[in-house]
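In practice, a research group might receive sequence data for several interacting partners and want a quick structural hypothesis before committing to experiments. The following worked case mirrors that situation: the sequences arrive first, and a predicted assembly follows.
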Amino acid sequence: MFNKKPHFVRIVSSFWASSIASELEYRFNIIIEILSVIGNLAGSLFTLSLFYGPNNNLGGWNWYSSIVILGIYTFLEGFTTTFLQPNLSRIVRHVQNGTLDFVLLKPVDSQLWLSLRIFSPWGIPTMLSGLILISFGLNFSNSEISIKIILISSLMLISSLLILYSLWFLIASTSIWFVRVWNANEVLRSTLVAGRYPITAYPDSLRKVFTFIVPIAFLTTFPAEAMLNLLSLKYILFSLLISLSFLYITTKFWNYALRFYTSASS
Amino acid sequence: MKIINRLISNIRVARALLITQYALMIEYRAEIILWAISGLLPLIMLGIWQEAGISKTFGFSNEWLARYFVSAFVVRQFTAVWVMVSFEEDNLEGRLSPYLLQPIMPFWRYFISHIAEQLTRLPIVIIFIVSLFALKTNLIWIPDIFRTALFLVALFLSFTVRFLLHWLFSMVCFWNDRASAIERLLLLPYLFLSGLVAPLDSFPASIRSFAMVTPFPYILSFPSKLLAGHDVNILGGFLALFLWGTTLLLLSYIFWKKGIKNYSAMGA
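A structural hypothesis for the assembly, expressed as tokens:
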């Protein structure tokens, strides 16, 4: 899908410029957004702190290292608000109103167009607060910082973003058949809440579900382990493999789904 | 006589609304199943609380936690409110205008559509609970009749208070077209203060007493504890629900009157 188009960068930057311009219509939102970032930070730190008593242990993670996980989760949440939710909710609407035709007729890869059309700035404060949490947690867990760790951590974070994107896109593509799948994304969102806490904090049965069925472990726990230099090479390769195959499956699945697209009102 | 006639006609209107909204909801039953699944959060939290070593410090037994979170799951299912989203949509797309012309407050239309959705949810929740109990037979408990009756009343009041809270903030649409941002903001205290992610008993005393003056614990923790059979101040809970209910009703009535003057009939 990402076959190099010379004008690709130009297209995306004009998409994002136009969507930022239209979002700035609602400037009042920024106050609400900042309030909700603060509220969310306070609430999730408070809830996390409830699990930490004198023994300072939740599933083998101490307080600062689980803040790293919370930070990654928060970052992913902001990423969802900025990129995934606004774009992928439109797929559903396109199918419902039959306007997907116009997208398919454009000389741009349709998956690319649908995934990057909108840039909603409202997730940025959340992403920033996630980054702050991550660096706060890392700073106090006395972990060493080296080029290698930074490189591996970024790789793991990217593969976590790819997996998250793929999950959203896969569900959104099923709207070709089921039309109204918006709630399926809501289901996904509420399941991913489990990623706020280290995967080892869950009972064994849930832990298996969150590793093999809904890959939550790959979204937050593994990247955090990479940042803390705890992740073995085996898991690094495994994460990369999973994320790339997820990405591959989305393009295949989208092309397959399009074969069933009959357009509305025709 | 006149009053009785009016009452009868009101009941007929309510019945007709309920039946039509129920038919509408049945149409979207697949969607409602998905909504029901998205309420799994209390069960995920149950997993983490049972595993966390700290539970012993608070004196939570596994049984206590299981009953609490399973009850919270049920309460959450029947207190789901999305009025801000539909009100924003109706306002933006100009559907509110014909509603205003009808001789029935739009409030009732939304309220009854929520009730109808809960009726369609009922079998789904029953299937959920039965299969959960079938998987983990040690979770089964039977609440006593008196408490269950109180629970049902509290559940309805909790739903009404939460609905009124969202209804009040829906009035923002009259001044600013986007209420959905405020809905996300409103979700935060619900998430952290209602007892959804952690029982209020685990809160430090100062934060707990702060939470208790907000309406949030009464729309989740209070009815859940009634159902779970845990210690709870029954009289205080009902009093709080009643006071919050009347306050919110009054406020939303005032803002409705003010807002409607400001209504610009988008798309008309």
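Before designing any experiment, note the following. Residues 8-258 of chain A form one domain. The CA atoms of residues 37 and 126 of chain A lie 6 Å apart.
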